[in-house]
Amino acid sequence: MIEELDGVLEGNGQLGLPELRRSLQELLGGPAATGRVLDQHRLKSCVYRLRFEVNGCVRSLVVKRLEPSIAQRNQLVATRWLPAIVLRANGPPLLGTAAERNGQCVWHVYEDLGDWLLDASDPDPERVQAVVELIAQIHTRFAGHPLLAECRLHGGDLGIYYYTSNVRDAICSLEALRPPDIALSAERLALRDRLLERMYKLLDEQSYRAQMLAELGGPETLLHGDLWTINTFVLPTAHGWQARLIDWDRAAVGPVIYDLSTFLLRFPPHHRWWILELYKRAVECQGWRLPSARELNLLFDTAECGRFANRAIWPALALLSDRAEWGFDELAAVEQWFETLEPVLPA
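Request: output the structure for the sequence above.
Response:
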């Protein structure tokens, strides 16, 4: 088996491959196991599906290369945080880890969940309900949990601090885009100035938004932080649908509106009301009550503006440090997001 594993991801220039292959060897039965690599498929950047035939059985695994801090966060979710609220079986199916010898990266090995992603374009109500109820369970069970401090330490804060710090950092990075540090055409200067005007407006609104979040945002809890439907699986079992959430790279602490806004925006507008109603019913069973639709839209707007501000920082820094031409295209995209931002819950 070891000879076959020497070819896993060969030629991809990936760090930590010897360590990954040793981990795979152990997971697949050790040196005594017989078998072969059936195929390798790149799912996205640094994520691969590997299929093996081992002792006559087919085994499919997913491997993912992560920065060490993000790998630690994902491992804590799978082995400590979700088990603490009795939801280990609803998180990422982590089987093993392999750290690159110099500490530059960590590989995670997961059981392959197959093609059971939740479809946002034509959502099946029963499968959506399974995911929504899982999200509600995580939110309500982790509110006030003693491990929140650890979640914040390793994941960060996605509440008003996220909004405020991103807006201020975006202002600093955009203000630095000026001659002689960087040449700006009239068009690019106008783009920078329009974005700065937006950021200063968001900064002026910080106190009001913070007050609304404090009064209506509910308790802090563990957030997935990236609730796109590509990170939600719904698998058939003998007892019905089982939801699982994967890719907790951005897990953090904050109010539930951050996760809710991300999740609802993945669906066409006419589906969002009934999906929100599923969440509302699920949390009301635990004594929670959501704000009105108007108030929710304001809270959702705060979450989205904080995200947009964050996305303005990095292209500006790339322009300053590397003169990366793509930075202006990214800044133009951020401006477009602001211009087309509409209430999450349609009238």
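The chain has a mean pLDDT of 94.
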